[in-house]
Amino acid sequence: MDDVVIRVNNVSKVFKLPHEKNSSIKSAVVNFYRRERGYELQKALNNVSLEVKKGEFFGIVGRNGSGKSTLLKLLAGIYTPTKGAVHVNGTLTPFIELGVGFNPELTGRENIYLNGALLGFSRKEISRMYKDIVEFAELEKFMDQKLKNYSSGMQVRLAFSIAVQAESDILLVDEVLAVGDADFQRKCFDYFKNLKRDKRTVVFISHDMNAVKEFCERGILIDDGQVKFAGTASETAREYSKLFMEGYEGSVKGRPSSRLGSGDVRITSVNTSIDADRLSIKVRAKVNKKVDELVYGLHIIGQDGAEITSMNNRMINIPDVKNLLPGSIVEFEWKMPNIFSDGIYNIMLVLVDGAMKQLDYFEDADRFTVRRQEHSNTAILPPVKVSHKIKGG
User: Fold this and answer.
1) pTM reported for the whole predicted model
2) Is the distance from CB of 91 to CB of 42 less than 8 angstroms?
3) CATH number listed for the domain at residues 4-9+46-241
């Protein structure tokens, strides 16, 4: 018996991008009667093939613009392939662009019925699940307000809460774990843990490699519209990280590098590991030009863009690395207690010489995710013991 529920065979997707922009009825008519109307072709996907088995959590990773979301929309039937074929065996719910179809002039209550109808629910079915939707979204006090008065986070929570009611065979998930506050993200993670436990079929796009490794069994790496790697979730996450490391040696396939600095010393790998008690960040760098003194710095940035901590070796009384010769490799490791609150954190790494000349500035070197049952309204959650006593009465 064939247990494959999604089969993509040699699929390509090409978009035509017209050169003329019709900003008025007159320009539309003029451009229509031109014999030669210019356009360029954008190849979003090129000869992509994959298979997803029933009950599998399957990851798709890649840089922004690599073609991940286009592939998901092909699976959802939103796009049709330019070449090749997509076969889906079972009912499907896309968690793509949550909230599409919402009407800002309607109340939250009315939008539940509207969005539910777009997902294929009858009015009777929506009425039956209405209480669960509102409780999951935690928006009981706002259901009779117009949606235009909701924050963007509230709208996403409402849309997600409607979508999770769908009892379809296959779910397509595009970065929904990156939205909402810490409490809502925890609900998302709990929901996906339940999907994994129940052996539901999920195709999962994320830039969070910890989430990919936690949930997915297998995955693919897409770059420039092509499958560059396929393997286990851990292997795929590792290849994704390598893609960014390679991008540091200048540019990859014509893309400009985001790295700053002279390049006298370049970071070549970053390996972040975290458990309930400790965070470790191992860094390797290659020396391209003689450096007498190397100062290395670390910044950890919260998901709201706020800097959580910032330090360098001098600030914590660690000696500089001295007398580095071309061709040598320097390795260093940051270790600290895991006192971070629930959330997603970015790591920035900076290398400078003894005169503070910038050698390498790695703005998005890696990221890590912390998930806790306890949580705080701030970015750190130090170990705390609390007790109380009652005397008298």
Assistant:
1) 0.62
2) no
3) 3.40.50.300
